Each structure stands twice: as structure tokens, then as C-alpha cells.
Task: inverse folding
């Protein structure tokens, strides 16, 4: 019991929460950029999985961290461009196309893993690399702050910086403005000369890039191997975080942290006889209530 | 047959053909042996083993290949029938909501929770043959329908996107279902997390004891006929489809579309709710899922292939489970992992739903037909004038 209390209220818990949040946060930022252009990207799950897989395989075969990261990002963007091509050019329903890509990623990674290593469960036999943690000089020596702020995975810092970058990008740059215009009202955007399809295409590619970082974090930082279906629904959770936070990067980040910290807490709370199933489903229930509330408020304002 | 329908069939056929071809190329590439032999020998060896793998893949479900010749594969056939059952039912559930152009993908959760709740009844309700089976299935349907009330209400009353809410609810249903099994129904003597076994009398009758062929397939066909009748032959179904075709038009002609959307979501939830428990009652005899088995997602593939027409849902489901069982058999006899089937599924969905795929050809054949009927018409007129 005391251990559990310490587990929740220690500074390590905050560090753990940040670690669990990282992949959700990156994918949620991806969901945000796509949603801003009015094209929901529900292939995040598949994109993350493919990038996680590619990173491990490429680093295992080339022993080059640089190539692994490039390949992982490239595969994520390729998945996103497949989604964009089918949805925007071939007029496939974007939800169905994304579901197809998720199926492809889930089974395809297992298939290729088994073809390459003979093992279907994990890439344990591949000698893959990990992306290192970063200790921030000076801060790492400050007692509490050091534990929380320093020593995280490189991608975690990238993710935190990306919250600000994405917010700036969407609200302060011409391309971001175009993306939001297309998402807000494609006809109006079209009438002022913005190419709707091109803009949506770009938004989906950026979304794929962000999700691929989340995937790389999973297999090259969070753990040091690839396991089948290792994304375990984080792509869907990211969508929930985005829905919770609206079209604002800070709101979305808050949503991602809510999910990440609930997950981290649910393990410790088991010691209090609070079943982890209940704590795990809580953020989803909260999301549904919040979405219902948003919809109700919107309905009320439009009726007036 | 109208050019449009004919075209749809061609397109699905071409999509399946392309998918099988891509699968063959992947199998071929993964069959290329390493080692120090001449290029053409390698190719020949790969060709031979790819052909063998594909023979198991495409025929293994129903044919047993022995050195003495081919024989009927009874276990494969029964596996094929049994695996079709849950995905026919989720396919029907999804096709109902898709007909109204609603994107409720909550079938997975409704199926899971329905099965978990009904498991309690299956364990504790006295095992009277037939009656208790019906009671268990009805409870599963009620649980599925009850859970579908939430996204249905949010969409119909508040206009909240059913896509996101039904997705979220899948997780809630999953955790709730696991919680019910773990806390109240767990068989503590079993090594893994499974429920207590069902009452003997609640189980579905078997057609074949050895391979456990249960009558679920007939229940699934029965539900298909019911859903077909409901969607195609009743006013209610007509209204639902009208909303799907043109919601504004439906509203103008006096249909209360939010009420109908709510009703179809709940009805679909009831159908989905029964999908999982039927498999448990027929095959496993207890609740044993630690992961959501994915039948709700399969239902989306099937409804898409069947173009939301209930009568085609079993056809699509039989096709899907045929290649899945075939892939498993291929995996048993060769080194090819059966997960290759996911790659084929993805290609098929992408091509079948890509409206612009082959659309030029479609336009041409429709034009041709239109010109032809114009000609016929003018000929008739000439005849009348005479």
C-alpha cells in the first residue's frame, strides 16, 4: 500500500507519465493537423505500427540510427500518402481507406517480421538500436526538477517542442492558414484559389510524419524491439485526445497527457483495489461526455 | 442487368484478382531460396513453391491434398462455416447503419459487451435446451442494443459525430466486458483468464461432434433473411435507406430522420450484440477473449464488399473466411505466414471502395447502354408513327 502511494505521488510517476504520453501526443498532433484540414486520419494506428517496425528492421540490418529514423519516417509518410491518394484522388471513403491501411499494417508487419526473422511475436532476435535518452546538463543535478525534466528520450523532447511548432504552424503560417481554411469551408477556400486537394494532401502527409515519430519512439525508445500490434490502440487514443482538445495544439496536448497519465496511474491504482479496467476506460468515458457537451453547446448556439 | 450493377461485379472481381496477384508476387519473392545456385534455378524453385503455397491457399479450405490424390477436407470446411458465423452477423449490423450513411463502427464493442453480459446468463440460467439458448442470445442482443443507445442518442439528439463516439465506446465496452468476466464470472480453477463454463443445455446443438460444427451458421442465415426483409421489404427499412440516399429529401418527405437514425443504430447494436455469444455458445463453451476478436472490424470489410445489401453479406463473409482458413492451412504446410491475408484484404477494400477506380470504363459502358436504349426507343417511335 505504501509502495503504491509512493508509486503515484513520486516524481518518478510524473516521468513515467511523460514517457507513456509521448507516442499518444505525437499521434494526437498528427490527428490535429489532419482534422484541421477536414480529413480525419484514422490510419494513425497503422502508420505508427509500420514506422515502429521499419525502424527496428532497418536499424537491425544497417546498424545505422540515422538510416533507421529516415526509413521509419519515410514509411509513415508513404502510408499517409497512400491514404491521401486513395481518399483524394481515387475518391475512396477516407474512413474505409484508413481501416484498410490499419489492417494492412497489423497483418503486414507480422507477415514481414515472420518472413525476415522466422518469429511472429517480436523482433527479439534482431539486434536493433535505440534512440538515446538525453540528460540536460545542470538541470539533471537539480533534485526534483532533474528527475522530471531531464533524462527523457530524445523523441520526447521533440514531441514537447512539436506542440509549439504545430500550434505556430497552424495559426501563424500561410500553409497552416490554408489548411484551416480548407477544413473550415472547402468551397470558400476553393473560391479564393486554394487547391483543396493539394492542401488536404499536405496535411495528411504532415500527419503521417508526426505519427511516424510516435511509432519510432515505441520500438526504439519505449522498448527496444518490435512486437506484433505493439501500438495497442494508441492511434485511436490519439484521436480521442484530439477530439478532446479541439483544433488547438495545447488543448490536444492536454488531452494526450490526460490519457497518458491515466494509463500510468491505472497500474499503481490496482493496489488500491481499483480495477485497472475502470481507470483505463475512464478517459474514454470522459471523452464521450466532453464530445456530447461540445455538440450540445454547438447545437444551442446554432439554434439561437 | 443494368450496366451499373454489372460494373460493380466486374470491379469487385478485378479488385480480388489484383489482390490475389499481389499476394502471389509476395509469396513468390519470399520463396526465392538463398544460396549459391544459378539464377534460373532459383526462379524455378520459387515458382514451384509459390504455386504449391497458392494451391493450399486457394483450395486447402475444402480440399485435402494427399500423395494419393485430393480428398474433401472436412475439418477445413467446418472451420470455414464456423468462422463465417460471427462475421456474417457483424456484417449485417454494419450494413444496416451504413445504409443510412451513418458511420457507427461500434459493432466491435457491442459484440464484446453483449457476449460478456450474456455469459453470466449462460452460466447461471438453468440449462433448458433451446429455451436457455434463446434467453442467452436475447440478453446479448439487449446488451448490444443498450450500448448502442449512447452513440445513437449523441448523434440523433446532439449531432455529435458517431464515428468518434462509437470508437471510444468500443474501448469502454472492452474494459467493461473484461471487468465483468474477471470480477464476477472468472473460473478460478482455470489456468488463464476465462469464465466459468456455460450450462450444457445453453450450448448450441452440434452437427458434427468431432470438429464442433455448430448450428450457428443457420442462425446467421436466419438473421440475414430477417435483416434483408427488414431493410428491403418494410417501410421502416425504406425510410432508413432513403435517409442514406438523401437525408434532406427524406426530411422534406416527412421522415423524422433523427428518430430513424437512432432506431437503426439501436437495431444494429442488437444484431451486433449476438455475434460474439453465438460463437461462444457453439464452439468455446465459455468466455475466453482477452483481446477483442475484431469481428466488428471484419463487419466493416464485409458490409463494404456487400455494398450494404444484406443478401450479399453472407457471400462476402464466406469469401473472407474462405481465404482466411485457406491462409491458415497454407501456413501449416509452407513457410508463408497466414497474415499475408491482411495485405490482400487491404488491397481489396481499397480498390472496391475507390470510386474513381475504373470509372472511365464505367462511364463508357453506361453511355453505351444509354445510347442503345435511346436507339431502341426511337425505333419504337418510328414503329408507332407507322
Result:
Amino acid at each position: 500500500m505504501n509502495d503504491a502511494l509512493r508509486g503515484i505521488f513520486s516524481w518518478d510517476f510524473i516521468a513515467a507519465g511523460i514517457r507513456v504520453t509521448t507516442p499518444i501526443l505525437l499521434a494526437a498532433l498528427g490527428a490535429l493537423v489532419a482534422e484541421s484540414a477536414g480529413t480525419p486520419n484514422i490510419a494513425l494506428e497503422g502508420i505508427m505500427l509500420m514506422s515502429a517496425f521499419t525502424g527496428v528492421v532497418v536499424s537491425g540490418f544497417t546498424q545505422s540510427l540515422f538510416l533507421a529514423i529516415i526509413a521509419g519516417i519515410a514509411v509513415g509518410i508513404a502510408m499517409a500518402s497512400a491514404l491521401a491518394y486513395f481518399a483524394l484522388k481515387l475518391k475512396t471513403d477516407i474512413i474505409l481507406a484508413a481501416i484498410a491501411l490499419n489492417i494492412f499494417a497489423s497483418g503486414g508487419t507480422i507477415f514481414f517480421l515472420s518472413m525476415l526473422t522466422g518469429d511472429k511475436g517480436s523482433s527479439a532476435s534482431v539486434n536493433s538500436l535505440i534512440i538515446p535518452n538525453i540528460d540536460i546538463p545542470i538541470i539533471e543535478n537539480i533534485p526534483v526538477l532533474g528527475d522530471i525534466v531531464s533524462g527523457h528520450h530524445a523523441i520526447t523532447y521533440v514531441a514537447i517542442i512539436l506542440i509549439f511548432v504545430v500550434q505556430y504552424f497552424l495559426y501563424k503560417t500561410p500553409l497552416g492558414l490554408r489548411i484551416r481554411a480548407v477544413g473550415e469551408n472547402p468551397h470558400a477556400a476553393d473560391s479564393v484559389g486554394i487547391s483543396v486537394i493539394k492542401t488536404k494532401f499536405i496535411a495528411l502527409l504532415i500527419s503521417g510524419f508526426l505519427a511516424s515519430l510516435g511509432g519510432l519512439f515505441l520500438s526504439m525508445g519505449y522498448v527496444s524491439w518490435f512486437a506484433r500490434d505493439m501500438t495497442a490502440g494508441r492511434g485511436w487514443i490519439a484521436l480521442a485526445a484530439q477530439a478532446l482538445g479541439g483544433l488547438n495544439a495545447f488543448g490536444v496536448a492536454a488531452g494526450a497527457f490526460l490519457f497518458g497519465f491515466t494509463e500510468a496511474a491505472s497500474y499503481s491504482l490496482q493496489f488500491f483495489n481499483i480495477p485497472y479496467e475502470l481507470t483505463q476506460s475512464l478517459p474514454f468515458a470522459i471523452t464521450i461526455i466532453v464530445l456530447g457537451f461540445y455538440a450540445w453547446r454547438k447545437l444551442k448556439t446554432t439554434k439561437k | 442487368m443494368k450496366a451499373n450493377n454489372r460494373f460493380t461485379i466486374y470491379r469487385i472481381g478485378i479488385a480480388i484478382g489484383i489482390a490475389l496477384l499481389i499476394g502471389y508476387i509476395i509469396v513468390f519473392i519470399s520463396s526465392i531460396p538463398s544460396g549459391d545456385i544459378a539464377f534460373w534455378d532459383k526462379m524455378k524453385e520459387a515458382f514451384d513453391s509459390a504455386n504449391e503455397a497458392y494451391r493450399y491457399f486457394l483450395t486447402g479450405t475444402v480440399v485435402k491434398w494427399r500423395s494419393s490424390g485430393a480428398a474433401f477436407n472436412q475439418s477445413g470446411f467446418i472451420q470455414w462455416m464456423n468462422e463465417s458465423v460471427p462475421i456474417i452477423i457483424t456484417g449485417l449490423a454494419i450494413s444496416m447503419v451504413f445504409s443510412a450513411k451513418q458511420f457507427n463502427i461500434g459493432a466491435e464493442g457491442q459484440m464484446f459487451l453483449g457476449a460478456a453480459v450474456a455469459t453470466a446468463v449462460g452460466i447461471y440460467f438453468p440449462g433448458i435446451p433451446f429455451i436457455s439458448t434463446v434467453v442467452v442470445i436475447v440478453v446479448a442482443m439487449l446488451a448490444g442494443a443498450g450500448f448502442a443507445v449512447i452513440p445513437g442518442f449523441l448523434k440523433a439528439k446532439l449531432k455529435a459525430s458517431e464515428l468518434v463516439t462509437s470508437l471510444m465506446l468500443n474501448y469502454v465496452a472492452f474494459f467493461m466486458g473484461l471487468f465483468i468476466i474477471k470480477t464476477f464470472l472468472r473460473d478460478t480453477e482455470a489456468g488463464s483468464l476465462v469464465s466459468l463454463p456455460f450450462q450444457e443445455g445453453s450450448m448450441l446443438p452440434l452437427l458434427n461432434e468431432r470438429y464442433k460444427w455448430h448450428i450457428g451458421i443457420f442462425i446467421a442465415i436466419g438473421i440475414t433473411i430477417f435483416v434483408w426483409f427488414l431493410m428491403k421489404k418494410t417501410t421502416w427499412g425504406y425510410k432508413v435507406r432513403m435517409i442514406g440516399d438523401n437525408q434532406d429529401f427524406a426530411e422534406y418527405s416527412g421522415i423524422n430522420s433523427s428518430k430513424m437514425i437512432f432506431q437503426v443504430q439501436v437495431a444494429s447494436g442488437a444484431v451486433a450484440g449476438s455475434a460474439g455469444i453465438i460463437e461462444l455458445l457453439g464452439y468455446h463453451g465459455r468466455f475466453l477473449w482477452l483481446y477483442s476478436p475484431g469481428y466488428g472490424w471484419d463487419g466493416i470489410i464485409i458490409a463494404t464488399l456487400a455494398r450494404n445489401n444484406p443478401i450479399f453479406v453472407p457471400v462476402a463473409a464466406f469469401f473472407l473466411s474462405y481465404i482466411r482458413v485457406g491462409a491458415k492451412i497454407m501456413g501449416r504446410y509452407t513457410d508463408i505466414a497466414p497474415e499475408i491475408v491482411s495485405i490482400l484484404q487491404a488491397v481489396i477494400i481499397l480498390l472496391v471502395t475507390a470510386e474513381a477506380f475504373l470509372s472511365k470504363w464505367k462511364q463508357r459502358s453506361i453511355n453505351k447502354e444509354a445510347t442503345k436504349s435511346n436507339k431502341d426507343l426511337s425505333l419504337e417511335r418510328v414503329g408507332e408513327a407507322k
Q: What stands out?
A: Chain A has one domain: 2-303. Chain A has 13 helices and two strands. The first strand of chain A starts at residue 133 and ends at 134.
